[in-house]
Amino acid sequence: MTQEAGAVRRGRRSGGGAARRAERTATRSEFSRFITRNVPDFEILNTEALEIIEANAETVLQEVGVNFVDNPAALALWKDAGADIDGERVRIPRGLARQLCATAPSTFTQHARNPERNVEIGGRNLVLAPVYGPPFVRDQAGGRRYATIEDFRNFVKLGQMSKWLHHSGGTVCEPTDVAVNKRHLDMLQAHMTLSDKPYMGSVTLPERAEDSIEMSRILFGSDFVDQHTVMTSLVNINSPLTFDSVMMGALEAYARANQAAIISPFIVGGAMAPVTVAGTLTQVLAEVMAGVAYSQLIRKGAPVVFGAFVTSIDMNSGAPTFGTPEAAQITLGAGQLARRLGLPYRSAGSFCGSKLPDAQAAYETANSLNIGLLSGVNFMLHACGWLEGGLVSCYEKYVMDADQLGVLHKLAAGVDISANGQGMDAIREVGPGGHFLGCAHTQDNYKDAFWRSGLLDYKPFETWEEEGARDTATLAAQKVQKMLGEYQAPAIDPGIAEALDDYVARKKAAVPDAFV
């Protein structure tokens, strides 16, 4: 079914004059299409190095193996596929995992409830999604505190209004005021109703993944979900070389339903992988191949993403470090390995270890974001809002990072060498000793010639001082309040909204609250 046909089909299903009136009167926030790179990827490894790492990864799978814990069904599938099973250890013959990976698609479309915001994951594309997972939030007014469902909804609203962000994300913060066994319902409902961008599903238990699928069927229609990918969700590997039953249960649910999963080792170099770049890349590749291969045993052709979350470690304190050259080398190398495997690639983000949205945060984040662009990342989780090593979702840093994502769009576009881009008419018109401010070429192009920040201050010193000598974090705090004050929810069919309310209410009422 084409995108247009899908939109028509969903329109007919949800239908109704109320929905059409809501759509006509809704405020449409400005947004940019996902990035398609017109610049080359940076390749840090030569062919010989890549072949060595690939051979070593096959050796790891065959000789060392991986553990699939508390999952007899997975062991049975692997045995039927030809792997050697010893207890919970799975040893995969050389070449088998790569052969199984070959059935996973190299690109796929994730559909949004607003078809204009569908994203293409893979190829030359880059999709940007916000921070994921922090239990704490920070803002200038309230400082550092445990996140609430109100914070969660605020971040979804900021994501909906952020021009350069293509995806609503998943657990943008962990709402600790809602029971652990029920908060996934509130989080999903927020993404589905407060945003019309694509979103991620729950992975904290297999049944929560099933809830995500059921709620998506309410939003899109069962037939549409059965035939299209509407979720991309994060499945972490317990590095080193361990696949736990919780994450694998979520992967199984999503693969069976043809919903996408990012299969991502969680690597802290020196703690969960070797301290060397080549050693870490070997482990990352082995883990990803085993995870992707398993997804294809569940359902051949299920969409998956080659994930690599990689950070180094401070050998003095043991704390993870971000924006480092070693992490950059691994991110670049993993991109090459993903392309050779023919899979979409997830890595990088607005990573930093700073406690505040300060210079350290800016340096580390800029390093990571730019390396993500150069490494060929297709899906960038944590693209904005990350603080304190991923423990904190920061309001100010969210809008600071989201503003800088516009730079990635501009860089990725490459250099215009059309007749207009060459600017020869301008050079001829101005000639020696003149200036270009008033020439026809400048007048024709000034609106779009340069990327313009929606946040940073470029005013003269005197004006800046008169306006309160505001630093960037202060400007960001003011922008957060302005955006939340101007937010309007995108239109949604009232019948669908009511059905989501009913599903969430019934699921919550069925079990008592649990906070562990």
UniProtKB/TrEMBL annotation:
It is an enzyme of class 2 (transferase). Gene3D superfamilies: Trimethylamine methyltransferase-like. Residues 1-27 are annotated as: Disordered. One of its GO terms (biological process) is methanogenesis. InterPro entries: MttB-like_sf, MTTB_MeTrfase. Its EC number is 2.1.1.-. The lineage of its organism: Bacteria, Pseudomonadati, Pseudomonadota, Alphaproteobacteria, Rhodobacterales. Keywords: Methyltransferase, Transferase. This is Methyltransferase. The keyword Cytoplasm does not apply. Belongs to the trimethylamine methyltransferase family. GO terms for molecular function: methyltransferase activity.
